[in-house]
Amino acid sequence: MLHLTIDDFDLRAIAESGQCFRMTEAGNLRPGFPVYKVIASGSCLLISGDPDGDENSFLASCTESEWENFYKRYFDLDTDYGIYRDHADKNDSFLQKCMEYGRGIRILNQEPWEMLISFIISQRKSVPAIRTTVERLCALSGKEKILDCSEWHAMNSELPDRIIYYPFPSVETLAEYSFEDINSTGTGYRTGYIMEAARRASTGELDLHAMDKLSDEELLSVLLGIQGVGIKVASCTALFGFHRLSICPEDVWMKRVKEQFYAGVWPESYRPALGVLQQYMFYYARLEHEKSKIKEI
DNA sequence: CTCCAGGTGATGG
DNA sequence: CCATCACATGGA
After folding, report:
1. Measured in angstroms, what separates residue A52's CA from nucleotide C4's C1'?
2. Which CATH number belongs to the domain containing residue A62 in this structure?
3. Percent of chain A with pLDDT strictly greater than 90
4. Within a domain: residue A22?
5. How far is CA A285 from CA A18, A30, A174, A247, A288, in A?
6. What confidence tens digit (pLDDT) does each residue in A236-268 have?
7. Does residue A293 carry a pLDDT above 90?
């Protein structure tokens, strides 16, 4: 069990801000202290707030070297989000409120390949349905891995003592699957898009690793050349898979916010930080929407 | 059973 | 260039 002190870090805000599909609650350590299961880059992590510490205290299931060598970068902890928040106008009360609500959000450093396929799947699907399909796609390989979490189980018997998980399929693995294999995971009409993307990536025609060097504009342009990838999926892949923090995915929620609060145009000064600012606004907009749904009932 | 989901591509004006 | 429509499923 690793004890950590991290500022400006909120697990719920990260998990619920629509950037990842494999970070979910696995139970509670104590009431009000949810434990999150994070599956990324072939490994699985349990992490939660520390009930015996302050708001910046966390517990994690990995070793210190795993944290230093991988998770610190994965959670983007070397980035000072205060610098991004400073782009916001002090008089922009809407955005200020969003940033207060979403304080602790980080844009995760996720793998480009996983982001591309996950967001192709995401179109016209609800978040729970996306999660189900992504998990099934991962389980296709049958190559299960196990995380021993007996230490967590000992602290609260409601928590599992071990977790079975499946890494996200590599380009090669996905390229070898049949139409029926992929289609059986619930990909629907996107099955062909996924197969074609995997085929192109496996032949090297599409080199995701090399795309790291491209400018934002060039990157979006290459992504848009993939069947089933429009501006929204391309933007999500660029922001969440290539960490392009100035790119803003415009979905129905952001369009509503942009029309309602910014007369249809983002302020020019927000531009360099728009990917981050958008994340705060998306989280807040979704949260308010969920609240209003509860009121209706 | 019905409705809708962090959209995209094809088609017709 | 803009408006409209079909699209396969799972979740609520």
Report:
1. 57
2. 3.30.310
3. 95
4. yes
5. 12, 28, 35, 18, 5
6. 999 999 999 999 999 888 998 999 999 999 999
7. no
Q: Which two tokens stand for residue A129?
A: 């349905």
Residues 191-220 of A with CB under 7 A from strand B: none
Q: Let me know if residue A37 belongs to a domain.
A: yes
Q: Which residues, in sequence order, are bridge partners of residue A35?
A: A48
Tell me what the mean pLDDT of segment A268-284 comes to: 97
- Quick: pLDDT tens for A15-51: 999 999 999 999 999 999 999 999 999 999 999 999 9
| Nucleotides in B strand less than 7 A from protein CB | 4-9
CA distances to A26, A37, A71, A82, A237 from A12, rounded to whole Å, are: 12, 11, 17, 19, 21
Could you identify the residue written with the tokens 């179109």?
A123
| Strand B within 7 A of A8 CB | no
Q: Which domain holds residue A53?
A: 1-71+145-167
Would the pLDDT of A270 be above 50? Answer: yes
User: pLDDT (tens digit, 9 = 90+) per residue, A41-98?
Assistant: 999 999 999 999 999 999 999 999 999 999 999 999 999 999 999 999 999 999 999 9
Q: Which two tokens stand for residue A18?
A: 């629509």
Q: How far is the CA of A177 from the C1' of C4 (A)?
A: 35
A151: in domain = yes
User: Per the structure, how many domains does chain A have?
Assistant: 1
Residue A156 lies in a domain: yes
Distance CA A124 to C1' C5 in A: 14
